[in-house]
Description:
The complex is a heterodimer of chains A (183) and B (205). Chain A is built from 5 helices and 8 strands. Chain A is of the alpha/beta class and 183 residues long. Chain A has a domain at 69-167: P-loop containing nucleotide triphosphate hydrolases (Rossmann fold, 3-Layer(aba) Sandwich). The mean pLDDT of chain A is 92. Chain B has one domain. Helices cover 83% and strands 0% of the residues of chain B. Chain B has helices spanning 2-15, 19-36, 40-60, 68-72, 75-81, 86-115, 120-148, 154-174, 178-202. The radius of gyration of chain B is 17 Å and the shape is elongated. The A-B interface holds A 14-15, 48, 51-54, 65-68, 70-78, 87-88, 124 and B 4, 8, 12, 15, 72-75, 77-78, 80-83, 204-205.
Amino acid sequence: MKLLLRFDDVLLRRGGRQLFEGLDLALGPGEALQVVGPNGSGKSSLIRLAAGLLRHERGVVERAPLALADDNVALDRELQLCRALRFWSHRPEPAMEALGIAHLADVPVRLLSSGQLKRAALARVAASGVTLWLLDEPLNALDADGVDRLNRIVGAHRASGGAVLAASHQPLSGDWRLVDLAQ
Amino acid sequence: MIGALIARDVRRGFSGAAWLPIAFFLLVATLVPFAIGPDARLLGRIGPGILWIAALTAALLPIERLIEPDRADGVLDQLALHGAAEESVAFAKMVAHWLTFAPLLLVAALPGSALLAMDGRSLGRTEIALAIGTPGLAALAVAVAAVIAGLPRAGSLAGLLLLPFAVPLLIFGAAQALALEAAVSLLLTAGAPFVAGAAIRATRT
């Protein structure tokens, strides 16, 4: 089985503080992994390291092409939502439909609520067409319907051979393996 | 991706206040006759230098909008995940910045030269010098914008960083030593993407 993400004995230091060491992870097609741990334990840093946006000090990190949704929406605020999403993928419509924001297609991004922005960021990931998704606190600002839709797109993505790495201190529904950074 | 980024940045540049640096440019050209008096001969002689000072300040104005908003909003991160090298991103931003301020500046130099009582020959030479020098100025602006991205009080720091590096452009541009000016402009344009690329990577700590 070809792994989509692999950490081998990884040590990460940020600002002179060691966040974790000797961390091993393996994520193959169809799998989902949730990073848990108290505030400040390095969940977001782990996600950014997996994305290649941070450098580790020791160990090996290998990754497949991936998409990331974190607190930064990365959509042009003055553009209509549909046009803003189209900068990142050619056909965002199915993903917008799946996340329940299709009716907001013509609304400028700056007018969206934080929950709608979260859905837009998730739609950007869902429309990316890559196999590995990295989600940092995907439940933040989502309402019950949003959580429901997130679970559905994650399920569909895994069923089609994709993998998901999520950092969240709230429980995610479905079958997730856990990595606890508190230990 | 890079072509799309240039198109996006040009659109953002023009949808924002693209006229502001140009208004600033003309304002500086307007203030000088008030400051030194309406002596047409004197104004005509110092005119090219004044236009260069005005161009420098105009290039400095939008510097905080070049890199920082995209860093803060995660656009730079997403571009990296899409496989765009930071150097390519910086180069795209240089091209877009040049497109949004330089052509307008060259047009604004026409009324600017009239305010400074410059004759046609002097205007023509200054236009050529500005056309050669502005790519270097745009490159410098993007490199400095990347270095200061995310710092507090970045705006005032920008001037301190940019202006000394712009001195060679200013000297050769105002003296109309076009070959030397082209060399400096080329050096800045070639070097800036690597400086800006390294600075963008360094913001990810």
